[in-house]
Amino acid sequence: MSQASDLPPRKSRQPSPAAQQRRQRQIEAKRAQILSAALDIFSRFGLHGASLDQVALQADVSKTNLLYYFSNKEELYVAVLRQLLATWLNPLRTFSEDQEPLDALRDYLRQKLEMSRDYPAESRLFCLEMVQGAPLLLPELQGSLHDLIDEKARVIRTWIEAGRLAPVDPYQLLAQLSESLLGINRIVSYLRRAGATWISGTAKTWFKTLERDVRSLSDYQAKMNGEIGFLLDATLGLISVEQNNIVKVFTIASVLFLPPTLVGTVYGMNFKVMPELDWHFGYPLALGAMVVSALIPYAWFKFRRWL
Predict the structure, then answer these.
(1) DSSP 10
(2) In a domain, 106, yes or no
(3) pLDDT of 249-301, one tens digit each?
(4) Distances (CA, A) of 106 to 3, 101, 187, 268
(5) In a domain? residue 10
(6) Which residue among 127, 202, 250, 278 sits deepest, i.e. has the most Cβ atoms within 10 Å of its Cβ?
(7) Helix (H) and strand (E) counts for the chain?
Protein backbone atom coordinates (compact mmCIF):
# COMPACT_ATOMS: atom_id res chain seq x y z
CA MET A 1 0.00 0.00 0.00
CA SER A 2 2.86 2.32 0.87
CA GLN A 3 4.65 1.40 -2.36
CA ALA A 4 1.59 2.36 -4.42
CA SER A 5 1.31 5.66 -2.58
CA ASP A 6 4.97 6.41 -3.33
CA LEU A 7 4.40 6.15 -7.09
CA PRO A 8 4.35 9.51 -8.92
CA PRO A 9 0.92 10.61 -10.15
CA ARG A 10 0.16 9.79 -13.77
CA LYS A 11 0.08 12.78 -16.05
CA SER A 12 -2.86 13.21 -18.37
CA ARG A 13 -1.77 13.01 -21.97
CA GLN A 14 -2.15 16.31 -23.78
CA PRO A 15 -2.21 16.44 -27.59
CA SER A 16 0.70 18.25 -29.16
CA PRO A 17 0.15 21.63 -30.89
CA ALA A 18 0.68 19.95 -34.26
CA ALA A 19 -2.02 17.39 -33.47
CA GLN A 20 -4.41 20.13 -32.35
CA GLN A 21 -3.82 22.06 -35.57
CA ARG A 22 -4.33 18.93 -37.64
CA ARG A 23 -7.57 18.22 -35.76
CA GLN A 24 -8.77 21.78 -36.32
CA ARG A 25 -8.03 21.56 -40.06
CA GLN A 26 -9.98 18.32 -40.26
CA ILE A 27 -12.96 19.92 -38.50
CA GLU A 28 -12.90 22.95 -40.80
CA ALA A 29 -12.57 20.75 -43.88
CA LYS A 30 -15.50 18.58 -42.80
CA ARG A 31 -17.60 21.64 -42.01
CA ALA A 32 -16.79 23.17 -45.41
CA GLN A 33 -17.67 19.86 -47.08
CA ILE A 34 -21.08 19.82 -45.37
CA LEU A 35 -21.76 23.48 -46.21
CA SER A 36 -20.89 22.89 -49.86
CA ALA A 37 -23.26 19.94 -50.07
CA ALA A 38 -25.98 21.85 -48.23
CA LEU A 39 -25.63 24.77 -50.65
CA ASP A 40 -26.22 22.46 -53.61
CA ILE A 41 -29.22 20.76 -51.99
CA PHE A 42 -30.86 23.93 -50.64
CA SER A 43 -30.38 25.81 -53.93
CA ARG A 44 -32.23 23.04 -55.78
CA PHE A 45 -34.96 22.11 -53.31
CA GLY A 46 -35.20 25.04 -50.89
CA LEU A 47 -35.36 24.80 -47.13
CA HIS A 48 -38.65 22.92 -46.89
CA GLY A 49 -37.98 20.61 -49.83
CA ALA A 50 -34.54 19.49 -48.65
CA SER A 51 -33.69 17.05 -45.88
CA LEU A 52 -30.65 16.38 -43.74
CA ASP A 53 -30.45 12.88 -45.22
CA GLN A 54 -29.95 14.39 -48.68
CA VAL A 55 -27.24 16.72 -47.38
CA ALA A 56 -25.47 13.91 -45.55
CA LEU A 57 -25.55 11.72 -48.67
CA GLN A 58 -24.23 14.58 -50.81
CA ALA A 59 -21.47 15.37 -48.30
CA ASP A 60 -20.58 11.67 -47.93
CA VAL A 61 -20.97 11.77 -44.14
CA SER A 62 -23.35 10.09 -41.76
CA LYS A 63 -26.35 11.99 -40.49
CA THR A 64 -25.01 11.60 -36.94
CA ASN A 65 -21.74 13.20 -37.99
CA LEU A 66 -23.63 16.03 -39.68
CA LEU A 67 -25.64 16.68 -36.52
CA TYR A 68 -22.37 16.97 -34.62
CA TYR A 69 -21.62 20.15 -36.59
CA PHE A 70 -25.18 21.45 -37.01
CA SER A 71 -27.94 20.58 -34.57
CA ASN A 72 -30.83 20.91 -37.05
CA LYS A 73 -31.70 21.77 -40.64
CA GLU A 74 -32.54 25.41 -39.89
CA GLU A 75 -29.14 25.99 -38.27
CA LEU A 76 -27.42 24.47 -41.30
CA TYR A 77 -29.52 26.60 -43.65
CA VAL A 78 -28.68 29.81 -41.77
CA ALA A 79 -24.97 28.89 -41.83
CA VAL A 80 -25.15 28.45 -45.60
CA LEU A 81 -26.96 31.78 -45.95
CA ARG A 82 -24.36 33.60 -43.85
CA GLN A 83 -21.57 32.17 -45.97
CA LEU A 84 -23.52 33.08 -49.09
CA LEU A 85 -24.16 36.62 -47.89
CA ALA A 86 -20.47 37.18 -47.23
CA THR A 87 -19.77 36.23 -50.85
CA TRP A 88 -22.74 38.05 -52.34
CA LEU A 89 -21.90 41.39 -50.70
CA ASN A 90 -18.29 41.43 -51.90
CA PRO A 91 -19.05 43.54 -55.02
CA LEU A 92 -20.71 46.21 -52.88
CA ARG A 93 -17.75 46.28 -50.51
CA THR A 94 -15.44 47.34 -53.35
CA PHE A 95 -16.92 50.85 -53.34
CA SER A 96 -14.35 53.36 -52.09
CA GLU A 97 -13.95 57.12 -52.10
CA ASP A 98 -10.69 56.84 -54.04
CA GLN A 99 -12.39 55.30 -57.07
CA GLU A 100 -13.96 57.18 -59.92
CA PRO A 101 -17.76 56.85 -59.61
CA LEU A 102 -18.20 55.52 -63.16
CA ASP A 103 -15.46 52.91 -62.69
CA ALA A 104 -16.86 51.87 -59.30
CA LEU A 105 -20.41 51.40 -60.61
CA ARG A 106 -19.17 49.60 -63.72
CA ASP A 107 -17.04 47.25 -61.63
CA TYR A 108 -19.99 46.59 -59.31
CA LEU A 109 -22.27 45.50 -62.16
CA ARG A 110 -19.48 43.48 -63.78
CA GLN A 111 -18.77 41.62 -60.54
CA LYS A 112 -22.47 40.89 -60.01
CA LEU A 113 -22.69 39.37 -63.49
CA GLU A 114 -19.52 37.36 -62.95
CA MET A 115 -20.88 36.08 -59.66
CA SER A 116 -24.07 34.91 -61.38
CA ARG A 117 -21.85 33.06 -63.83
CA ASP A 118 -19.28 31.65 -61.41
CA TYR A 119 -21.60 30.99 -58.44
CA PRO A 120 -24.88 29.73 -59.91
CA ALA A 121 -25.88 27.80 -56.78
CA GLU A 122 -25.26 30.79 -54.49
CA SER A 123 -27.11 33.08 -56.87
CA ARG A 124 -30.06 30.71 -57.10
CA LEU A 125 -30.32 30.23 -53.33
CA PHE A 126 -30.02 33.97 -52.64
CA CYS A 127 -32.80 34.73 -55.14
CA LEU A 128 -34.94 31.97 -53.65
CA GLU A 129 -34.52 33.37 -50.14
CA MET A 130 -35.24 36.93 -51.31
CA VAL A 131 -38.41 35.91 -53.17
CA GLN A 132 -39.68 34.28 -49.96
CA GLY A 133 -39.10 37.53 -48.04
CA ALA A 134 -35.81 36.44 -46.41
CA PRO A 135 -37.46 34.99 -43.25
CA LEU A 136 -34.22 33.46 -41.90
CA LEU A 137 -31.80 35.93 -43.48
CA LEU A 138 -33.67 39.00 -42.25
CA PRO A 139 -31.60 39.49 -39.05
CA GLU A 140 -28.41 39.44 -41.12
CA LEU A 141 -29.88 41.87 -43.65
CA GLN A 142 -31.00 44.25 -40.92
CA GLY A 143 -27.54 44.13 -39.38
CA SER A 144 -24.56 43.75 -41.70
CA LEU A 145 -26.33 44.72 -44.92
CA HIS A 146 -27.96 47.78 -43.38
CA ASP A 147 -24.60 49.01 -42.07
CA LEU A 148 -22.94 48.32 -45.42
CA ILE A 149 -25.61 50.25 -47.33
CA ASP A 150 -25.20 53.22 -44.98
CA GLU A 151 -21.43 53.08 -45.44
CA LYS A 152 -21.68 53.05 -49.25
CA ALA A 153 -24.27 55.83 -49.13
CA ARG A 154 -21.67 57.95 -47.35
CA VAL A 155 -19.18 57.14 -50.13
CA ILE A 156 -21.69 58.33 -52.74
CA ARG A 157 -22.32 61.53 -50.75
CA THR A 158 -18.54 62.14 -50.72
CA TRP A 159 -18.47 61.80 -54.51
CA ILE A 160 -21.33 64.27 -54.81
CA GLU A 161 -19.74 66.80 -52.44
CA ALA A 162 -16.48 66.58 -54.41
CA GLY A 163 -18.32 67.29 -57.65
CA ARG A 164 -17.45 63.88 -59.10
CA LEU A 165 -21.06 62.73 -59.29
CA ALA A 166 -24.28 64.55 -60.12
CA PRO A 167 -26.53 65.26 -57.12
CA VAL A 168 -28.65 62.19 -56.45
CA ASP A 169 -30.07 60.45 -53.42
CA PRO A 170 -27.52 57.73 -52.50
CA TYR A 171 -30.13 55.17 -51.52
CA GLN A 172 -32.07 55.83 -54.72
CA LEU A 173 -28.89 55.31 -56.75
CA LEU A 174 -28.25 51.97 -55.05
CA ALA A 175 -31.84 51.00 -55.78
CA GLN A 176 -31.45 52.04 -59.42
CA LEU A 177 -28.51 49.70 -59.72
CA SER A 178 -30.94 46.90 -58.88
CA GLU A 179 -33.45 48.26 -61.40
CA SER A 180 -30.78 47.96 -64.09
CA LEU A 181 -31.30 44.20 -63.76
CA LEU A 182 -34.39 44.60 -65.92
CA GLY A 183 -32.29 45.95 -68.79
CA ILE A 184 -29.72 43.22 -68.28
CA ASN A 185 -32.50 40.65 -68.45
CA ARG A 186 -33.64 41.96 -71.83
CA ILE A 187 -30.05 41.97 -73.14
CA VAL A 188 -29.43 38.40 -72.01
CA SER A 189 -32.71 37.20 -73.54
CA TYR A 190 -31.81 38.86 -76.85
CA LEU A 191 -28.32 37.34 -76.90
CA ARG A 192 -29.71 33.88 -76.25
CA ARG A 193 -32.09 34.18 -79.19
CA ALA A 194 -29.83 36.05 -81.62
CA GLY A 195 -26.72 33.97 -80.89
CA ALA A 196 -28.36 30.57 -80.87
CA THR A 197 -26.22 29.44 -83.83
CA TRP A 198 -22.79 30.76 -82.84
CA ILE A 199 -22.80 30.82 -79.00
CA SER A 200 -21.08 27.80 -77.46
CA GLY A 201 -22.94 25.34 -75.31
CA THR A 202 -21.17 26.49 -72.14
CA ALA A 203 -22.07 30.12 -72.84
CA LYS A 204 -25.68 29.14 -73.52
CA THR A 205 -25.86 27.42 -70.15
CA TRP A 206 -24.37 30.48 -68.45
CA PHE A 207 -26.78 32.83 -70.24
CA LYS A 208 -29.71 30.62 -69.24
CA THR A 209 -28.61 30.65 -65.58
CA LEU A 210 -27.99 34.38 -65.69
CA GLU A 211 -31.39 35.07 -67.24
CA ARG A 212 -33.15 32.96 -64.60
CA ASP A 213 -31.31 34.65 -61.75
CA VAL A 214 -31.94 38.14 -63.08
CA ARG A 215 -35.61 37.32 -63.57
CA SER A 216 -35.79 36.05 -60.00
CA LEU A 217 -34.27 39.27 -58.68
CA SER A 218 -36.64 41.31 -60.83
CA ASP A 219 -39.59 39.32 -59.48
CA TYR A 220 -38.36 39.93 -55.95
CA GLN A 221 -38.07 43.66 -56.62
CA ALA A 222 -41.62 43.70 -58.00
CA LYS A 223 -42.79 41.75 -54.96
CA MET A 224 -41.17 44.29 -52.61
CA ASN A 225 -42.75 47.18 -54.52
CA GLY A 226 -46.13 45.48 -54.24
CA GLU A 227 -45.70 44.94 -50.51
CA ILE A 228 -44.70 48.57 -50.00
CA GLY A 229 -47.78 49.68 -51.94
CA PHE A 230 -49.95 47.33 -49.88
CA LEU A 231 -48.54 48.67 -46.61
CA LEU A 232 -49.12 52.23 -47.80
CA ASP A 233 -52.73 51.45 -48.72
CA ALA A 234 -53.26 49.65 -45.42
CA THR A 235 -51.84 52.61 -43.48
CA LEU A 236 -54.06 55.06 -45.33
CA GLY A 237 -57.03 52.78 -44.72
CA LEU A 238 -56.34 52.62 -40.97
CA ILE A 239 -56.03 56.41 -40.86
CA SER A 240 -59.36 56.74 -42.66
CA VAL A 241 -61.03 54.31 -40.26
CA GLU A 242 -59.69 56.25 -37.28
CA GLN A 243 -60.88 59.53 -38.75
CA ASN A 244 -64.31 58.03 -39.42
CA ASN A 245 -64.55 56.88 -35.79
CA ILE A 246 -63.74 60.39 -34.59
CA VAL A 247 -66.29 61.96 -36.95
CA LYS A 248 -68.82 59.35 -35.82
CA VAL A 249 -68.42 60.41 -32.18
CA PHE A 250 -68.94 64.08 -33.02
CA THR A 251 -71.93 63.29 -35.23
CA ILE A 252 -73.67 61.25 -32.53
CA ALA A 253 -72.92 63.91 -29.91
CA SER A 254 -74.39 66.65 -32.11
CA VAL A 255 -77.54 64.59 -32.77
CA LEU A 256 -78.01 63.81 -29.06
CA PHE A 257 -77.67 67.43 -27.96
CA LEU A 258 -79.67 68.96 -30.80
CA PRO A 259 -83.21 68.25 -29.36
CA PRO A 260 -82.34 69.51 -25.82
CA THR A 261 -80.81 72.60 -27.39
CA LEU A 262 -84.01 73.15 -29.37
CA VAL A 263 -86.16 72.87 -26.23
CA GLY A 264 -83.91 75.24 -24.32
CA THR A 265 -83.93 77.70 -27.21
CA VAL A 266 -87.73 77.74 -27.42
CA TYR A 267 -88.25 78.40 -23.72
CA GLY A 268 -85.40 80.86 -23.61
CA MET A 269 -87.22 83.33 -25.85
CA ASN A 270 -88.44 86.46 -24.10
CA PHE A 271 -91.99 86.67 -25.44
CA LYS A 272 -94.66 88.19 -23.19
CA VAL A 273 -97.28 85.56 -23.96
CA MET A 274 -95.74 82.19 -23.05
CA PRO A 275 -98.20 80.28 -20.82
CA GLU A 276 -95.59 77.66 -19.88
CA LEU A 277 -93.57 80.29 -18.04
CA ASP A 278 -96.31 80.66 -15.45
CA TRP A 279 -96.75 76.94 -14.84
CA HIS A 280 -95.77 75.72 -11.42
CA PHE A 281 -93.94 72.71 -12.90
CA GLY A 282 -92.82 74.47 -16.08
CA TYR A 283 -89.10 74.33 -15.29
CA PRO A 284 -89.02 70.62 -14.31
CA LEU A 285 -91.10 69.78 -17.38
CA ALA A 286 -88.64 71.65 -19.62
CA LEU A 287 -85.72 69.76 -18.09
CA GLY A 288 -87.57 66.49 -18.49
CA ALA A 289 -88.29 67.28 -22.14
CA MET A 290 -84.60 67.94 -22.71
CA VAL A 291 -83.60 64.62 -21.15
CA VAL A 292 -86.28 62.64 -23.01
CA SER A 293 -85.38 64.29 -26.33
CA ALA A 294 -81.77 63.22 -25.81
CA LEU A 295 -82.60 59.68 -24.68
CA ILE A 296 -84.85 58.90 -27.65
CA PRO A 297 -82.08 59.34 -30.30
CA TYR A 298 -79.65 57.46 -28.02
CA ALA A 299 -82.06 54.51 -27.74
CA TRP A 300 -82.56 54.56 -31.50
CA PHE A 301 -78.79 54.45 -32.13
CA LYS A 302 -78.43 51.52 -29.74
CA PHE A 303 -81.34 49.72 -31.41
CA ARG A 304 -79.72 50.11 -34.83
CA ARG A 305 -76.34 49.10 -33.34
CA TRP A 306 -74.68 52.32 -34.43
CA LEU A 307 -73.09 52.62 -30.99
Answers:
(1) P
(2) yes
(3) 888 888 888 888 888 888 777 777 777 777 778 888 888 888 888 888 888 88
(4) 82, 8, 16, 84
(5) no
(6) 127
(7) 13, 0
